[in-house]
Amino acid sequence: MINQVNTLIYNELCERGGVFLPQVGTLIVQRSAAVRTSSDKIEAPKRKITVTGEQRSRSIVDIIASTADISAERAADIYSQWLKSVTKDGVVTIDGVGVVADRKFTADEALLSLLNPKKGSVKVKRRVNWIVYGFAALCVIFAIASVVYTQYPKFTSAKKEAAVAQVVPEKHIEEAAVVQPEPEAVVVDDVLEMKDNWNYAVWGVYSQKQNALKYKEIIESRYSDLKCNVFHYKDNTMYLLAIHQTPTRKEAIMLVDLLKSRGDMFADVWIFTNKK
Q1: pTM of the model
Q2: CA-to-CA distance for 17 and 24, rounded, in angstroms?
Q3: CB environment 127-159: b (16+ within 10 A), e (fewer)
Q4: Residues paired with 172 in a beta bridge
Q5: pLDDT tops 60 at residue 106
Q6: DSSP code of 186?
Q7: Residues 115, 117: Cα–Cα separation, whole Å
């Protein structure tokens, strides 16, 4: 039983990049970008595994239940037995995956080698083409001269229009403001209820509502086209932050793929189906 659970964790990390272990945390595969170590060398991108206390991926209990086709209660019992077997003095040792101790994760070397097939630095040959640089400089100078020549009349005209605008009486502005109707106050609940059998692109699951709302604000401030929602989760004892929600699993998969293509910030987004 221990080896089977170890294998499920290993496969989930390799295939999906993360797995949540209750009472331990979420193991997440993170990718660091290539780094220039000198003027002519670039170090290849690296992948590492970290652990966080938040639920950022599918739970191993759900994976056990789905793989073995058993109830969630039975899967939870199997996981509890596994956790007890692999824990000693507060240290969780997962054979073939790594060790969790003091909220830090040390990955197995074989797994790191699998995640990072390319190692070392790449030497970059620098070329200087002075003809191209000279031509580019001439183009820039010509472009600046053209802008100055064509925009100067518009600039002087704009100054005249601004001067005219300054003589408009302030009372006209006040009167215009008076006719604007005051918006009605709208009270919106900041935590929603999930719909049965809907699929949610999950950013994370939190025990504190303020943490979920904090990350909601961070995502929406960085990506103006995204509208996140916080939902009640696990019998209203936790809070799920979703970037998208859709009634179809196929559309949810497509949305998650699109999110992950936008960068590492969405690398750990996963799908939760609210089955009833």
Answers
A1: 0.49
A2: 17
A3: eeeeeeeeeeeeeeeeeeeeeeeeeeeeeeeee
A4: none
A5: yes
A6: -
A7: 6
